[in-house]
Amino acid sequence: MAALELSQLRRTVDRMVKAAARERAPFRCDECGLQVAKWVGRCPECQAWGTVTETSAPKTTVSAGPVSAPALPIADIPATGAAHRPTGIAELDRCLGGGLVPGSVVLLAGEPGVGKSTLLTAAAAKIAQTGERCLVVTGEESAAQVRLRAGRINALADDLYLAAETDLAALLGHVEAVEPSVLVVDSIQTIGSPAIDGAPGGVAQIREVAGVLTRIAKQRGIATVLVGHVTKDGAIAGPRVLEHLVDVVLSFEGDRHSRLRLVRTVKNRFGPADEVGCFDLTDDGIDELADPSGLFLSRSIEPVPGTAITVAMEGRRALVSEVQALVAPSSLPAPRRACSGLDAARVAMMLAVLERRAAVKVSAADVYTATVGGVRLVEPAADLAIALAVASAARDRPLPGDVVALGEVGLAGEVRPVGGLAGRLAEAARLGFRRALVPPGTSAATAGITTVEVTDLRAALRVLNDSVSTPRPGNVAHLRSVPS
Predict the structure, then answer these.
(1) Are 306 and 420 part of one and the same domain?
(2) CATH of residue 242
(3) Cβ neighbours for 12, distance < 8 A, ≥ 6 positions apart
(4) How many CB atoms lie within 10 A of CB 254?
């Protein structure tokens, strides 16, 4: 009997332990919010490492409480508080939708050394010169370093305040003392608080710091700009919730070996989310480029084999760009394929289509392709220009200098339509181009340029012999393939 009672007691204790384990708080991923029953080193949902932590889940009932402001009909709410205020840099205002909105939070992310701090320091100085107070808080550099940069780019103003802090409480103290209209935090990964678990730059720290700064910005109407780091893959470092908290997300792109810098809008609650701003990084600072098309063209007096002109769309902006190709005999079993500024997969596809559909033999040759000026062309509209540049280099015949090529090339060799054709043709005509190879069925005739419709790649290659007669500007010609 005693053994039976002991066995029953053990089973009862086991049931109680299992019930307590079930009621215990689960583990939660700080990155995506997934809840799991036990701790794991890698989240099974978002594949992030070290983000699964144990959280408490108290069962509480939330009752109604006082409201900060009564709810009003949406038509009765004034929209004057969301008006844009220009920063003084037109290309930056283009990406922001017209300027900074009071109470908004902007996240500017980019690789190290691309020019984020230089751009924001210049923008803060221009705003301060209008009489509004601006506060720049740097956690990566000393105040003396930022002062030297500001003096070099002529970004000094009486209403521009500077502080070097890494503690969140000290940052809020500076906001209380200065009472700025614009706050720049460079960068959010360096700001931390001892009251929050984890080191500065960690998931918990970034989430809490961003949340506090967002609440302060909304309550006091301070336009806040946060500088963010990126990972080696180019994504914004930190939790994904950071991009949801802010109002505007800007991506600062650029090659270290090129002076061209692009600010691309990823998210914008106050304007279009597909704008691009162009800048030129110089020794004296960063200059805006209102007309950057000339940077992406080589200045050759005579047409050169292996070059083709296309018009790329960066956001809503049309940029005339040049594609260059070099085809050379190869002594290697596997010929070289090198790309700079182009998608290697699309270039490889164009080489295969040229070989199979247009009888352009490049399989036994080294092929090098590149863009001019550091621009990166990844859209399918550049397919026709890539194919013509490679064919021109393989046949050693230059394309006419007044021709632009627009179109996506399919695996069957057909030329497909592309978007924004009217804007592309208008930009090409503005820069002096007189003929454009376009997909069939397009009706975007533009004054000053002749559109030549090509059905497939074989028909487009006939322009290498300049067999396209030049009709009056504004007319539409048709060019179809002929059997070989």
Answers:
(1) yes
(2) 3.40.50.300
(3) none
(4) 19
On whether residue 5 sits in a domain, the answer given is no
Structural domain count of the chain: 3
Is 234 part of any domain? Answer: yes
Mean pLDDT of 246-274: 87
Q: Which of 47-51, 359-363, 465-469 has the lowest mean pLDDT?
A: 465-469
| Per-residue pLDDT at 59 | 55
Q: Would you call 377 helix, strand, or coil by DSSP?
A: strand
Taking alpha carbons only, the member of 395, 359, 109 closest to residue 230 is: 109
The total number of residues written for the chain in this structure? 484
Distance CA 195, CA 193 (A): 5
Q: Determine the Cα–Cα distance for residues 472 and 450; give it in Å rounded to an integer.
A: 7
Same domain? For 100 and 239 the reply is: yes
Average pLDDT over residues 140-155: 92
Indicate whether 74 belongs to any domain: no
Confidence of residue 121 (pLDDT cuts 50, 70, 90): very high
| Both tokens assigned to 250 | 């800007």
- Structural domain of 28: 23-53
pLDDT above 90 for 414? yes
- Cβ neighbors of 89 (< 8 A, separation 6 or more) are 119, 122, 123, 126, 288
Task: Out of 173-177, 222-226, 262-266, pick the least confident.
Answer: 262-266
Q: Are residues 256 and 207 in the same domain?
A: yes
pLDDT-derived band at 468 (thresholds 50, 70, 90) equals very low
- State whether 265 and 380 are in the same domain: no
Q: Is the peptide bond before 298 cis (omega within 30 degrees of 0)?
A: no
CA 291/CA 279 separation, integer angstroms: 10
Task: Examine the fold and report which residue of 275, 290, 305 is the final residue of a domain before the chain moves on.
Answer: 290
315 and 402 share one domain: yes
Q: For residue 6, which amino acid is it?
A: L
CA distance 281 to 292: 13
